[in-house]
Amino acid sequence: MAPPREKHRSIQRNPETTKGVSRRALLAGVAAFGALGAAGCSRVAAEGKVEGGDLLDRLRDSGSVKIGIASEPPFGYIDDQGEPTGEAPEVAKVIFRRLGVDNVTPVPVEFSALIPGLKAQQFDVVSAGMYINPDRCAQVLFSDPDYLMLDSFIVPAGNPRGLRDYDDVAEQGLVLATGQAYAQIDYAEAAGVRDVLILPDQVAGLDAVVQGRADAFAGTNVTVNGVVEGNDRVEAIEPFQPMVDGEPAYGAGGFAFRPSEKNFRDAFNEELLRIRDSGELLEIVAPFGFTEAEMTDLTAEELCR
């Protein structure tokens, strides 16, 4: 995970509210899930040590699994009925049913708290469309990716600066906003962008562009297109492939597991590949703006190198 560096400006949202879930519900959920995590009696592997693990057997016995989400449409969020939905939770629901675990309970946290929360056993798996990269692979086990995404920017309507990618932002010395712990922070830095504004999410990013506090907001193509829809003051630029040191930086997301739970990850991954190869995966994620163009046969092993 790439946390904001000191030279980046960071703006925090009012702690009384969290997008997509009330503060009261969030605190109640965290308290309940923390108690369950503390009650677990299985041995936990040492930091960085990969073991087989028996978590899946315990989840089958209980019939319930806790998933960490970051309240970021379209990847994962809480709907108006209080249910987890979005690309990753809907995929998780299908896979867990086939693994014999029928009840999926969301634990909403900030994106930057997903890996720490997983390690602290606040939830059993990260189900938030998290990009797979070597830094994160050093901390968690990933499934193979269930999508491959290009980047895009939110810009003022008409794209007055003519932005096409991170290089354009750097060359013009502009202010680029992006989200907490987003991979886009590293992409911007690699391109030489000097002024990066760290915000809670894409909604805050849209507001920053509308208010003129940022010249653009960087995110995934699907995220950016979803948030600008219906707003005539901003637009999304054409999707583009980020480059780092002359090589493509693939935005491929998957599910994250504790290093002590390789058996759990392997069983989940087997079902994931089955629905991908059958075409069912695309059917599940299509309602959230994903298309055939976002499907991929990349592996976690390739992305972790």
Quick overview of this protein structure:
The protein has 305 residues and is of the alpha/beta class.
Could you describe the 3D structure shown?
The protein is built from twelve helices and 18 strands. It is of the alpha/beta class and 305 residues long. The protein is globular and about 55 Å long. The model is unreliable at 1-7 and 11-45 (pLDDT under 50).
Measured as a percent range, the helix fraction is 25-40%
**Spatial ordering of strands, largest sheet:** 1-13-12-14-11-15
Helix/strand order, N-terminal first? EEEHHEEEHEHEHEEEHEHEHEHEEEEHHH
Secondary structure category: alpha/beta
Q: How widely separated are the two ends?
A: 15 Å
- Report the count of strand segments: 18
**Cα-atom radius of gyration:** 19 Å
Query: How many H/I helices?
Result: 12
Q: Which spans of ≥5 residues are poorly predicted at pLDDT below 50?
A: 1-7, 11-45
Query: Could you tell me the strand content as a percent range?
Result: 15-25%
Biggest sheet overview: 6 strands, mixed
Shape: globular
Mean pLDDT: 87
